[in-house]
């Protein structure tokens, strides 16, 4: 027998029509009725919150993580129903907050409410349950449109289509169809050497998307107000140093021991920051490359690390340390 706990948070899957548009309203016990029966599996549910995932906050990630830890000894697997818009952020955050969890934690949701005609919710719920009942892996996963993805690699790439999520820079773990799981890969175990599990976050970070013409003065504000900065750069990690030169701003933050994480606006294949002069100068100014990590994972990981340390070199080391298979190269 396996006992599975469904933690509901709202989202499109639980949304109903209101005078102001779709909003979460379906109760957790009503959502439970859309799961099919799986021999040997007992389902329970608990409502954690009822939010459109646009309103999801880091404090909500902590609430979910604490619920899982509190019930870890009582249940064999967890399914979290969640809105799609910030599911990638929540999945990544839980991957760090629950780095030592020994059970599968599976996020799913839908593009169409479960009560609506043509919904994808019923399939996603039952695929999540199938995976929960059959997997031997532990950690955080997203199951959506028949595909199983690592929590740290899941990114929403479509606003309407049922195949809304992609596994970025990492293979799909499995596919689910007709009540069966077809494995693709089994991620290797990662030792937690030098990593302290904790349920805390420092949310005082900022994400800056580079664009032609970005004013350099923004760095003066950031240097006085944030604990870390993430810059979504161009291409392989490049930022302009002619005209509006951003490099002195980066160096100003680094000189104050404020980490500046450099990622790329390009979704696939990561960055090779030293390949071009425009990237190498960023690295020489102190920018910390994020390799092939996605922004959702960078944000969550940085909040998680900063809650434990503000030491610049330790932050750099941990950002470059693969955790929950979040990075393959830097």
Automatic annotation (TrEMBL):
UniProtKB keywords: Hydrolase
Pfam families: Asparaginase, Asparaginase_C
Gene Ontology MF annotations: asparaginase activity
One GO BP: amino acid metabolic process
Transmembrane segments: none
Top-level class of the enzyme under EC nomenclature: hydrolase
EC number: 3.5.1.1
Catalyzed reaction equations: L-asparagine + H2O = L-aspartate + NH4(+)
Family (UniProt): Belongs to the asparaginase 1 family.
NCBIfam families (alphabetical): asnASE_I
Name used for this protein in its record: asparaginase
Organism this protein belongs to: Weissella soli
Lineage, highest ranks first: Bacteria, Bacillati, Bacillota, Bacilli, Lactobacillales
């Amino acid at each position: 027998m396996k006992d599975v706990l469904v933690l509901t948070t709202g989202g499109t899957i639980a949304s109903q029509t209101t005078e102001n548009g779709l909003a979460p309203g379906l109760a957790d016990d009503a959502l439970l009725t859309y799961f099919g029966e799986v021999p040997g599996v007992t389902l329970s549910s608990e409502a954690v919150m009822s939010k459109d995932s646009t309103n999801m906050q880091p404090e909500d990630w902590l609430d979910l993580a604490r619920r899982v830890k509190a019930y870890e000894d009582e249940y064999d697997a967890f399914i979290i129903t969640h809105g799609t818009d910030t599911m990638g952020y929540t999945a990544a955050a839980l991957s760090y907050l629950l780095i030592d969890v020994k059970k599968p934690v599976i996020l799913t949701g839908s593009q169409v409410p479960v009560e609506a005609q043509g919904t994808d919710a019923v399939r996603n719920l039952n695929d999540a349950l199938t995976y929960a009942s059959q997997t031997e892996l532990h950690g955080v996963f997203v199951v959506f449109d028949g595909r199983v993805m690592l929590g740290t690699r899941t990114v929403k790439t479509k606003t309407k289509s049922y195949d809304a999520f992609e596994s970025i820079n990492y293979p799909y773990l499995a596919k689910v169809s007709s009540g069966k799981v077809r494995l693709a890969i089994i991620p290797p175990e990662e030792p937690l050497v030098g990593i302290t599990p904790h349920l805390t976050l420092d949310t005082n970070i900022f994400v800056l998307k580079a664009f032609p013409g970005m004013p350099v003065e923004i760095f003066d504000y950031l240097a006085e107000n944030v604990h870390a900065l993430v810059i979504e750069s161009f291409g392989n990690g490049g930022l302009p140093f002619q005209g509006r030169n951003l490099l002195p701003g980066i160096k100003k933050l680094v000189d104050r021991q404020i980490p500046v994480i450099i990622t790329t606006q390009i979704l696939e294949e990561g960055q090779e920051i030293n390949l071009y002069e425009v990237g190498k100068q960023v690295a020489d100014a102190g920018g910390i490359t994020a390799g092939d990590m996605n922004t959702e994972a960078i944000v969550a990981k940085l909040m998680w690390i900063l809650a434990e340390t503000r030491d610049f070199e330790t932050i750099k080391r941990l950002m470059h340390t693969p955790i929950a298979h979040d990075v393959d190269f830097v």
